[in-house]
């Protein structure tokens, strides 16, 4: 059966000649007169004034940075662009309780806003912590069913959380913050059905811009329903199963912030998460034993139950396939001693040494259902010796944060992949670590771009 | 129990001093470095180029009109503003099968786009017909449960329909149109929980801008899931009950367009719909019999079962209350011979002649459940004579369209309410009726504004 969208598209693009529906033009003309008339009648209403001010002002001045670009953009265009560019590689940070990516929802709007208003980094820190808190709390209440049904949790929950974060950054009052949440609910969207297309990263950009918009409009005086989250026609009902929020919100401001307790997981390698524990393990073994690819006869990887589901390519031929391949990940790590963007060029995948290694990497999943994830490596050396390693923690997670060096290595690799000189990013890296003492505008001016 | 949004707002606005979360600033700094780095890495991806182009270009040039305002806005800001201003009075046109307002979803983006691209009115007509078609077809498939659950059908379905309409106006290809639909699905939002606040008209503006955005991004090359509407994680599943679309789409392009068959209902009076049939009836009786308020001793109105549910004010004291009052509507119609914006000024409601008349207007609802709506009027004159009138059809609906004079009267009243001179709108009114022969840019330049 053809997709409904295609049926609609066929209909919509049929008879493209101007005037196909000329016999209905009076209907449309009357609708036009009536709609314009009613809008003119409504032009003096307070909400119309807000919409106008917003469209003409807040959106228009180019005061924020598209990261890695030289020319500034209006704040919302910057939030949108940075959300898209920051999510398209799926390499941005993750939160397990969210089942999604926290920073891509929060940082593009916060940074754009802080640049536009010339705010100190310390305020951005506070706003991020608050936004992260709400994002994870909402997720704890509802995300399991929500994500399973097909919602893109990063962007649906992210819009609300970004609005709260921006409200905090703007110093909005309690009631303005409530309104920002309601306006955010009126924009929350994003489906997993769009995963695997550009629309996935679009949804991240849209979320970032929507959260910003909600806070800016609340600041201008727009109101919304107070129970937009938990009312009978609110967010929890429409996007969830009407789960109660009180239990997850009870600890707000009392318990340690989610950013301290559950924290952020920074992805260490630019490929599928399901390879990361094994990559840590093989790189450790390589270092600890001074191994080269030559020394290794075979590697066998065992993971927890269903731990390798996304790894569908055992003999990848392209960089894109290699992103979902355990044999490639292990082979490249053994051969090169590192995994970075360069590992996923087609030429890198097609190297004879790699093609020779890959058949010697085997894998299977454990049968016993478990929730905690683990990878176990068995390396048989040419001399017959067997090395073993079990990896449970994920490097980059809250329990095992990336070292400053590892973070710098990723940062430099990102600049390189983006076609910029890694050395030009040193100042930003150093100053960003002092974020709470930096003006955001000055800091972001250090991101190299062309 | 307090609203969750309020709990969140209390948390977010507590400890507003900069540096409350300074102990977590390194976490945020690392997230910032990582997120910016990943975005820089992603900056050369095709979707990032689209986002940049869109933010810098399509959104920035002020080429479209805020209706009733002099200064132009960027197209999306215009679509947003016109959506807000056009919906805030709830006086914009209606479609019964949609359970919502078709033109406010379709015309703000179409007009803004047609102005920006300098397109002929005939193309706008075609695009409107196509957008209306999809809007009503989607509604026929799903709107009953969807609206009942709490979705704002005008804006959820409207975003998709507006995207299709704009795709048609831009002359996008079939596959670009499919992508526009998928991008629209990634933005579809709006809840009835926000009704009664500014966020309701905000949602209309957001819908208009989102539909436009979807088509512009698809034109720039953004893709989305082909089955974003009917896939297992698509629109029909997330926003409906996964109803099949094939049955309602089967007649597309074969059966007469919905605009011809179900058509548009133009609201004739600026108050609750539940009074409209009685208003038509009493104004007809007044005209037919040369009645004045003096002649009338009492009026009794009977409606179909539940036909007067929203009419909660029998003795209104303010204009806002009077919008939901049958006794006021009938009294003002009898006294003034018309109902327009001026009828809902507080002074008009508080006139002694009105306060004297209102107690003589009584009403009740019929007990028999019916679906078709009707109002029956019984007017007892001073002389004892009884006049009767039953009204079934709604004036302004497809079956009984407003006369050109009635439409002009509403148009002029709208200008007046918006603080403009009604006479200045004559040229637009006349030329808009020839829409299919007018360039949209020239036509919209005729809308008066300050």
Automatic annotation (TrEMBL), chains A, B:
Molecular functions (GO terms): lyase activity
Sequence ranges assigned to domain MmgE/PrpD N-terminal in this UniProt record: 8-244
Positions of the MmgE/PrpD C-terminal domain: 269-417
Regions crossing the membrane: none
Superkingdom of this protein's organism: Bacteria
UniProt cross-references to InterPro entries, sorted A to Z: MmgE/PrpD_sf, MmgE/PrpD_sf_1, MmgE/PrpD_sf_2, MmgE_PrpD, MmgE_PrpD_C, MmgE_PrpD_N
Pfam family, one: MmgE_PrpD_C
Family under the similarity heading: Belongs to the PrpD family.
Protein name as annotated: MmgE/PrpD family protein
Source organism per UniProt: Achromobacter pestifer
